[in-house]
């Protein structure tokens, strides 16, 4: 009984000491007041900003006002020390039109709060929510910060992002790493062939984190293996996957293989690398399923130095022969020039271990915009930087300006000096230019580095432009670039025109109601203001052209407002003077009882084609006006000549 009491006392003392130790080392949890009044380092601002109740303001002239505020934050234990940390999204405006969103993390360290690096999420995106996912990646837990956001499609204006996107970062010590930059070594399959049946111990010690294993791995595998390679009377090989801390460095040594010939390539080269028939079949069957169609694959043989440094495997007893075949695959649609490596095949002697696996490069290739009608990364004609302004010359057919382009600005870690920020800029064309004007030299678009990109031009900085540049002189044979055939008007361009025309119709109707004597005009104006906001924020992908359409004018005759989907019609109009928005179209058959078609928008193509005369045209009824009885009265978009 006395012994029992002593044990209970010792146990209680131990728990008390352990509790005091934890409390003394863990410090304090981060609270909302800490997040909202912290001094932050930011990517788009040189120096520190100290928030007060979640906001920082620096006053001055309109182009020099700085405002930084908290967009959203979440409190959670991120480094698994038992106390809360904070994931914080900040948005800054630095005197220009941009609103730059950044992600950072505050970690509680004893009595201090430590900020991780701050990464740029984008300009004028919309944050919907933050999720924190715990992934058990041996030997510890890795937190992934997943941000649900609306980002920009290529056709979106900067003020109206519509693409639902997931932005993922992994918290690695005190750094935020994009999830996709943690390369995964897929299906290393480890075969063991001892000379006699014996127990073998295998330890994996990668520079990274083990994500999958078969059979279960608890710090090591202890398995019984036969000379034929059967493991625990069940498995042909040990399986695992690893998320490495750094990517495989690519060289110009490797093979370029047409996708259609991958199977033959595996049959020819895998035996040369040391795999037997069964191992080669396993390798081939796995990777043919994993590799998506491309014109070509660049295949690189991963060298033993990289494997021994980043993916070491300890096997006891030590094999007499260890053959490792790891390949790096990169899909491409253009044939590159690589030098074929010399492969030295190992002979199998004594206890032999064989391992194969590979890394698949990310398959995100960007389109290039060479012609004014192409979307994607712009091939520039000329660049110039002067007095903190950047001038780029781009191809144009008459309707290219800053609103049809997008600049991606990244605060790069590559710097000539740690105190001098370096910005990488990539220009994209997000709206195609189908106008008919002739601009063989292209047009120059001007950007103010401070106003447009938030760069503090009062302090030193460096820039690099990531676009390809194709300089031309007027006397060169390929000076003018025009497509061989006329491009059709894309669906999204038509949708953009219909949305703009609907917005214009709503604006005209609001003004009409403001001047009216309707007893319920406040309610009607309020409804239209809501519709105005809805269409103002609408992306072309959300605008419906096809679908159920009500026929004019007898269904829902007492309702008014925007029509979506619009009603397509062909009518004959009489033109006596140039058409302009707000005009009543004089259509054949129109009487005092209608139908009335008010012009809310007109395509550039038909505006240039129509002069005085009679024309058969295609129109879209986009807004039903409130009018007397059954008389049809609409705002319309004039899209094209009828065929």
Report the sheet-strand fraction. 35-45%
Taking pLDDT < 50 over at least 5 consecutive residues as the criterion, the unreliable ranges are: 17-25, 136-140, 481-489
Into how many domains do the coordinates divide? 4
- CA distance, first residue to last residue: 104 Å
Which strand order spans the largest sheet, edge to edge or round the barrel?
15-17-13-22-21-19-18
Q: How would a textbook summarize the main sheet? A: 7 strands, mixed
Which oligomeric form is depicted? single chain
The chain-level structural class is: alpha+beta
What is the 3D shape? globular
Secondary structure: helix percent: 10-25%
- Gyration radius from CA atoms, angstroms: 33 Å
Tally of DSSP β-strands: 34
């Amino acid at each position: 009984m006395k012994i029992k009491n002593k044990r209970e006392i010792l146990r209680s003392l131990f728990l008390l000491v352990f509790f005091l130790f934890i409390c003394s080392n863990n410090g304090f949890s981060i609270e909302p007041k800490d997040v909202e009044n912290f001094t932050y380092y930011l990517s788009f601002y040189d120096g520190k900003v100290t928030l007060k109740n979640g906001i920082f303001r620096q006053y001055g002239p309109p182009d020099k006002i700085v405002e930084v505020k908290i967009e959203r934050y979440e409190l959670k234990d991120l480094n698994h020390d038992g106390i809360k940390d904070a994931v914080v999204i900040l948005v800054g405006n630095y005197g220009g039109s941009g609103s730059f969103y950044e992600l950072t993390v505050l970690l509680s360290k004893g009595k201090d709060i430590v900020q991780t690096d701050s990464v740029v999420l984008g300009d004028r995106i919309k944050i919907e929510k933050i999720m924190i996912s715990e992934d058990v990646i041996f030997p510890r837990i890795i937190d992934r910060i997943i941000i649900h956001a609306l980002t920009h499609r290529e056709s979106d204006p900067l003020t109206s992002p519509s693409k639902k996107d997931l932005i993922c970062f992994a918290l690695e010590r005190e750094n935020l790493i994009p999830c996709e930059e943690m390369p995964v070594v897929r299906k290393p399959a480890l075969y063991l062939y001892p000379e006699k049946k014996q127990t073998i111990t295998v330890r994996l010690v990668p520079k990274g984190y083990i994500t999958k294993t078969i059979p279960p791995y608890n710090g090591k595998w202890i398995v019984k293996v036969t000379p034929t390679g059967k493991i625990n009377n069940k498995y042909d090989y040990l399986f695992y996957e690893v998320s490495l801390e750094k990517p495989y460095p690519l060289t110009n040594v490797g093979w370029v293989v047409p996708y259609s010939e991958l199977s033959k390539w595996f049959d020819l080269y895998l035996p040369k690398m040391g795999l037997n028939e069964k191992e080669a079949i396993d390798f081939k069957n796995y990777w043919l399923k994993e590799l998506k169609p491309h014109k070509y694959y660049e295949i690189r043989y991963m060298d033993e130095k990289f494997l021994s440094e980043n993916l070491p495997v300890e096997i006891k007893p030590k094999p007499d022969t260890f053959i490792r075949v790891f390949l790096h695959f990169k899909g491409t649609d253009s044939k590159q020039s690589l030098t074929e490596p010399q492969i030295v095949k190992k002979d199998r002697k004594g206890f032999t271990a064989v391992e194969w696996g590979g890394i698949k490069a990310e398959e995100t290739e960007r389109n290039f915009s060479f012609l004014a009608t192409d979307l994607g990364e712009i091939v520039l004609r000329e660049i110039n930087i002067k007095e903190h302004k950047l001038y780029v010359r781009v191809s144009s057919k008459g309707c290219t300006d800053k609103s049809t382009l997008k600049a991606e600005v990244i605060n790069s870690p590559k710097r000539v000096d740690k105190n001098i920020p370096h910005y990488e800029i990539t220009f994209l064309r997000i709206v195609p230019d189908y106008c008919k004007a002739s601009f063989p030299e292209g047009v120059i678009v001007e950007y103010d580095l401070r106003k447009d990109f938030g760069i503090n031009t009062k302090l030193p900085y460096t820039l690099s432009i990531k676009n390809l540049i194709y300089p031309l002189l007027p006397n060169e044979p390929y000076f003018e670039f025009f497509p061989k055939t006329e491009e059709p008007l894309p669906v999204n361009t038509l949708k953009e025109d219909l949305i703009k025309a609907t917005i214009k119709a709503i604006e005209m109707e609001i003004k009409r109601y403001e001047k009216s004597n309707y007893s319920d005009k406040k309610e009607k104006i309020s409804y239209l203001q809501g519709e105005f906001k809805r269409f103002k924020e609408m992306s072309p992908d959300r605008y419906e052209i096809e679908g159920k359409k009500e026929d004019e004018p007898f269904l829902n005759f007492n309702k008014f407002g925007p029509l979506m989907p619009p009603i397509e019609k062909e009518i004959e109009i009489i033109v006596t003077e140039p058409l302009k928005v707000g005009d009543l179209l004089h259509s054949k058959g129109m009487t005092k009882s209608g139908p009335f078609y008010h012009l809310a928008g007109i395509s550039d193509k038909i505006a240039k084609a129509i002069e005085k005369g009679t024309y058969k045209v295609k129109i879209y009824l986009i807004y039903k006006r409130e009018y007397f009885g059954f008389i049809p009265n609409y705002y319309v978009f004039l899209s094209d000549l009828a065929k």
